[in-house]
Amino acid sequence: MDIREIRQLSDEDILDAIEDQKNALYNLRFQKASGQLENVNAMRDARRIIARLKTVQRERQLAATRAEGNKE
Fold this sequence. Notes:
Order of helices and strands: HHH
Low-confidence stretches: none
Shape: elongated
Structural class: mainly alpha
Largest sheet: none
Helix content: over 70%
Radius of gyration: 16 Å
């Protein structure tokens, strides 16, 4: 999931995607602990996707705050 795809998501979809990625990361941690993790880069990728999602979420929060400040 790249940044262009994330920016097209709604706020609710972003929250759902964050939850999904956190669950995926949780499962990957268990796979690593049990020695079943085949793709070691999957954990890094999951963390980066979560970071991208949270970045877009925060950008939208800041934009909304600025828009409220300009109205007053």
